Amino acid sequence: MKRYPNIRCIARHVRYAYSGSENSLKAYLWYEGQTYESKMFTFNILDRVGGGDAFASGLIYAMMNGYEPIDMVNFAVASSVIKHTIHGDGNITDDAQMIRNLMNMNYDIKR
Fold first, then answer.
1. Where does residue 13 rank: exposed (0-12), middle (13-18), buried (19+ CB within 10 A)?
2. How far is CA 49 from the centre of its chain?
3. What is the C-alpha to C-alpha distance for residues 45 and 43, in angstroms, rounded to an integer?
4. Count of CB atoms within 10 A of residue 37's CB?
5. What is the DSSP track for 68-101?
6. pLDDT by residue (tens digit) across 94-105?
7. Would you list the domain boundaries of the chain?
8. How far apart are CA 89 and CA 87, in angstroms?
9. What distances in angstroms separate CA 91 from CA 7, 51, 81, 95, 105, one per listed residue?
10. What is the largest CA-CA distance in the chain?
11. Cα dihedral 14, 17, 21, 22 in deg (nearest 10)
């Protein structure tokens, strides 16, 4: 923070690989001086490519839409989890409610 005093947010996700097809993700967010930890999501992978991009874009979306910091980190990691269940390098869903449902653990991902 001494080197970059204008930074308000640092985020990262952590992967736990149990096998080539089953992983878990969780994320950490440092936002305006406080650290937040997401829920842990366990899922089966269809395609890992683009998962990091989906995490970053989910975080940006949540920030732009005024989410609370804990909801920002949960939405970002849920976006990445959903991307892992979609073939290709882009998260083709634009259904923010579906991501929020996963973020809130309203249902399990089964594709």
1. buried
2. 14
3. 6
4. 13
5. -HHHHHHHHHHHHHHHHTSSSSS-----HHHHHH
6. 666 666 666 666
7. 9-103
8. 7
9. 27, 8, 10, 10, 19
10. 45
11. -80
Q: How many CA within 13 A on the CB side of residue 61?
A: 19
- Residue 109 is given by DSSP the state -
Condensed to tens digits (0 to 9), the pLDDT of residues 6-57 reads: 888 999 999 999 988 888 999 999 998 899 999 998 888 777 677 888 899 9
The Cβ of residue 4 has, within 10 Å, a number of other Cβ atoms equal to 7
For residues 99 and 36, give the distance between their C-alpha atoms in angstroms, rounded to a whole number. Answer: 19
Mean pLDDT score, 86-97: 63
Burial of 94 (0-12, 13-18, 19+ CB in 10 A): exposed
Residues in the chain: 111
Type of residue numbered 25: L
CA dihedral for 101, 105, 106, 110, sign (positive or negative): positive
> Rounded CA gap, 41 and 24, in Å?
5
Q: Which amino acid is present at 13? A: H
